[in-house]
Amino acid sequence: MKYLRAMFVGLIIMGLNFTAAQAADDETVYELRTYTTNEGKLDDLNARFRDHTIGLFDKHGMESIGYWLPVDKDNTLIYVIRHKSMDAAKQNWQNFGNDPDWKVVAEETNRNGAILAVAPESVYMTATDYSLNMLK
After folding, report:
1. Domains of the chain by range and CATH?
2. What residues are paired with 79 via a beta bridge?
3. What is the pTM of this model?
4. What is the DSSP string of the chain?
5. Which pLDDT tens digit goes with each residue over 45-78?
6. pLDDT tens digits for 14-55?
């Protein structure tokens, strides 16, 4: 799993839309999240993200960077979102969790059984100074 995570981090950093204006003191944080679904629920999770979650992320200041399905796992979704800062990330997640629209979506999409097998894994990251050089 560590190798898989390192591979995704490398791919993600290469794919980010950095500019030279993003200085070392930038407070931006990226969040790598891994979701593991119950058997047969990955399609439900993808539909929930496609139809609802991404819009709610936008509403609460979480910028979607990308979403991936590992080729060697049938029940996993990995994605990266960007927050303005760690403080903003905490506030974004609080606002998202309290959003009445999210509560309706979560209830409706779990009605036929829980989608997630375990709580999502989350890793917060900052960009290195040399990742800017790779993207010039």
Report:
1. 28-126 (3.30.70.100)
2. 33, 67
3. 0.79
4. -HHHHHHHHHHHHHHS---TT--TT---EEEEEEEEBPTT-HHHHHHHIIIIIHHHHHHTT-EEEEEE--TT-SSEEEEEEEESSHHHHHHHHHHHHH-HHHHHHHHHHTTTS-SBSSPPEEEEE---HHHHHHT-
5. 999 999 999 999 999 999 999 999 999 999 999 9
6. 555 444 334 445 799 999 999 999 999 999 999 999 999 999
